[in-house]
From TrEMBL:
InterPro entries: KR_dom (IPR057326), NAD(P)-bd_dom_sf (IPR036291), Sc_DH/Rdtase_CS (IPR020904), SDR_fam (IPR002347). This is NAD(P)-dependent dehydrogenase (Short-subunit alcohol dehydrogenase family). The lineage of its organism: Bacteria, Bacillati, Actinomycetota, Actinomycetes, Streptosporangiales. The keyword Transcription regulation does not apply. It comes from Streptosporangium becharense. PANTHER family: OXIDOREDUCTASE, SHORT-CHAIN DEHYDROGENASE/REDUCTASE FAMILY (AFU_ORTHOLOGUE AFUA_5G02870), SHORT-CHAIN DEHYDROGENASE_REDUCTASE FAMILY PROTEIN. PROSITE patterns: ADH_SHORT. The keyword Transmembrane helix does not apply.
Length: 259
């Protein structure tokens, strides 16, 4: 039996909700009936998934003053906030030893401290709702496996998963806090990261399901965790990664079934 999730009347915030994974999250919540507000540095183009949100605000989530102002404005417009999705993040590849301290600091601010600022500013509002609030943190497979070239990004995502577990205990029972760990996702920037179509197909072959996730797959997981179906789930990290990564030894083992 199919279960339809209806979030009509719920107010949802998505940081970085205009593009990539964030746009998929935005569109999924809109389809579930929620009122969605997004923030970022660049407004979504008309007709793109991120433009499904009725309101975009230009906010630098690394700036706690801008974050607090945005949270207050959204709460004032809607009389409250039910769900916050900390999605903003990312990092270009860089050699750890030669990257500047400023680079490492900016990566940490975007991928970890931004979620700290948003969650802290939103807590008084999301915890005041009668049904309890939800905070969702978007993390990465890089949090729990080596992340060469993006080492500080992986470390920041690992910190965000730790924060998720701690806040789930500290804020219970008023607010549920969970994380969604993304595997490889096919976004508009994927080709620049993974290569041309042939290279992307080979990379997809390392995923047990054989395909990249779509942004909408991440969005569907967020909608599920924000819904009453997940009312007893908090402090969890939900892997949305198609089975993770195929162990390297399987490429060389003569008969993997016997190992």
């Amino acid at each position: 039996m199919a279960l339809e999730i209806d979030l009509t009347g719920r107010t949802v915030l998505v940081t970085g909700g205009a593009r990539g994974v964030g746009a998929g999250i935005t569109e999924s919540f809109v389809e579930a009936g929620a009122v969605v507000e997004i923030c970022g540095r660049t407004e979504p183009a008309p007709g793109t998934p991120g433009s499904a949100a009725p309101r975009f605000s230009r906010v630098d989530v690394r700036d706690e003053t801008q974050v607090r102002r945005w949270i207050d404005e959204v709460a004032g417009r809607h009389g409250g906030i039910d769900v916050v999705v900390n999605n903003a993040g990312g990092a270009p590849s860089a050699d750890f030893a030669s990257a500047s301290p400023r680079f490492h600091r900016r990566v940490t601010e975007l991928n970890f401290l931004s979620a700290v600022f948003v969650a802290q500013a939103a807590f008084p509002v999301v915890s005041a709702g009668a049904g309890g609030g939800v905070v969702l943190n978007i993390t990465s497979i890089s949090a729990r496996r080596p992340s060469p070239g993006t080492a500080v990004y992986g470390a920041a995502k690992a910190a965000l998963e730790s924060l998720t577990a701690s806040l789930a205990v500290e804020w219970a029972p008023k607010v549920r806090v969970n994380a969604i760990s993304c595997g490889l996702v096919e976004t508009e920037g994927a080709a620049g990261h993974y290569g041309d179509a042939g290279q992307m197909a080979r990379v997809a072959g390392t995923i047990p399901r054989g395909v990249f996730a779509r942004p909408a797959d991440i969005g569907a997981a967020c909608v599920l965790l924000a819904s009453p179906l997940a009312v007893h789930i908090t402090g969890a990290v939900l892997n949305v990664d198609g089975g993770g990564e195929r162990p390297a030894f399987l490429q060389y083992a003569p008969d993997p079934a016997r190992r």
